[in-house]
Amino acid sequence: MAVKPVYKVIFHNQGQVYEVFCSAIYQSEMYGFIEIEEFVFGERSGLLIDPAEEKLKNEFAGVKRSYIPMHAIVRIDEVEKEGPAKITEVKGGGDKIAQFPYNSFMPGPPSAE
Predict the structure, then answer these.
(1) pTM here?
(2) Extended beta strands in the chain, E state
(3) Do you know which InterPro entries this protein is assigned to (predicted)?
(4) Which pairs from 97-103 meet CB under 8 Å and 24+ separation?
(5) CB 6 within 8 A of CB 37
(6) How far is Cα 71 from Cα 99, in angstroms, rounded to an integer?
(7) What are the residues whose beta carbons fall under 8 Å from the beta carbon of 111, sequence distance 6 or more?
(8) Alpha-carbon distance 98 to 50, whole Å?
(9) pLDDT band at 33 (very low <50, low <70, confident <90, very high)
């Protein structure tokens, strides 16, 4: 039986960096978006709970598919197994982190030549 691949997706969301794991990732039919499906959250013991992972688990509870803008994606890796999902605050990123240049292509009406 083939093992399903696991992907680690790191992306920017509202001034934070999200790191989530999923089993399915596709280029969306909506222009400029990546679809991620089948979120994978590690099953941890009841004694130790990571608040960031619990926040992500609650945020994506009931979500079948999420559409992430391509310009928000930092990195996508295929990994051997999932790790802890986490949210990282971007601190003082003004001089260290620059948004990827985004140029939306808007086709105009055909010219009458």
Answers:
(1) 0.69
(2) 6-13, 16-27, 33-39, 65-69, 73-79, 86-89
(3) DUF1820
(4) 99/71, 100/71, 102/71
(5) no
(6) 8
(7) none
(8) 29
(9) very high
